[in-house]
Design brief:
about 300 residues; alpha+beta; 2 domains; 3-stranded antiparallel β-sheet; 13 helices; about 45% helix
Length: about 300
């Protein structure tokens, strides 16, 4: 068995395609994707590629959003993005390979020191294959060249940020510390997420991108869906359990809880509570009650 055995499996499968090809892999490198397109017969006019573009993963070098440019140049291929994707499967008409191998050099054995991977053939009509394809179709968003450029730019900024979080691969590595919101202006988050950050100062932008990295929200969402994702992450924070459970939260109690962790000074704890309050005011349906200890309460303030 040769070192590029997995690649030969994929190449031989693709060579049999006459109608359609579907590529499903979280990590895809540009060089391997180019080889895949070359292996698909010219008569195949429909190539669907489903992958995921996380800024952290792109910064780590495990995936290349530039495959969007190759797909555009090829003319037959369409990129779709599924942020929680982990499955790997490759379809050529009625045949399908499923297993562990991504479309990267190490996974396919096209570079030295290849991974140990597995691909086995099943029919495309296998119930589990159909289940995965249906789930992908229900949630995937288009991976455009413009979006690829935004992801690459944010990944480059993250890699260059000395104060930023360690570059990790979501689902494989764990974040080294818990997340607390950093940027004081949450309205800037969606602008930066969409690549519209030219007028945000570099120091402020660094904090916004660090928040986005920890939030790890999939690309391509509209502003309402993005806000819902942010709010879900906020409500998962231990500091906000009282607000979630009782509908109210004392800012003084939240500050005391942060101080008790031993990770923050009194000034840092106060600033963090104020930042959390600003995020809740922007993303949630809450109001502030400035009587006694300041409180955040769920719901709109009654006139």
């Amino acid at each position: 068995m040769t070192a590029d055995h997995v690649w030969r499996q994929i190449e031989q499968l693709l060579a049999t395609a006459t109608d359609r090809v579907i590529l499903v892999a979280p990590f895809i490198k540009k060089e391997v994707f180019q080889a895949v397109l070359a292996a698909v017969p010219a008569g195949v006019v429909e190539i669907t590629c489903v992958t995921r573009w996380s800024v952290s993963e792109v910064a780590a070098g495990v995936s290349d959003p530039e495959i969007a440019e190759l797909a555009q140049q090829d003319g037959r291929a369409a990129i779709r993005l599924c942020h929680n994707l982990h499955a790997k499967l490759y379809v050529a008409d009625g045949r399908c390979l499923v297993g562990s191998a991504n479309l990267t050099g190490k996974a396919t054995g096209r570079v030295p020191a290849a991974n140990v991977e597995l691909l086995v053939e099943v029919g495309t009509n296998h119930p589990e294959v159909q289940r995965v394809l249906a789930a992908v179709n229900a949630s995937a968003v288009p991976g455009t060249v413009e979006l690829a450029e935004q992801i690459r730019e944010q990944a480059s900024l993250m890699r260059d940020d000395e104060d930023g979080p360690r570059v990790v691969v979501p689902g494989q590595d764990e974040q080294p510390t818990r997340w607390l919101p950093e940027t004081r202006n949450p309205e800037r988050l969606y602008r930066a997420y969409n690549g519209r950050h030219r007028h945000i100062g570099s120091d402020v932008l660094a904090g916004v991108l660090r928040d986005l990295a920890y939030l790890d929200i999939g690309p391509g969402l509209d502003e309402q869906a993005f806000g819902s994702e942010v709010l879900a992450k906020l409500h998962s924070m231990p500091e906000l359990h009282a607000l979630t459970a009782a509908g109210r939260m004392s800012l003084a109690d939240a500050q005391a809880a942060l101080l008790a962790s031993g990770e923050l000074t009194a000034e840092q704890a106060q600033r963090t509570v104020e930042t959390i309050a600003a995020w809740l005011h922007y993303f949630d349906d809450v109001h502030f009650v400035p009587t006694g200890p300041w409180e955040i309460r769920q719901g709109k303030e009654l006139a």
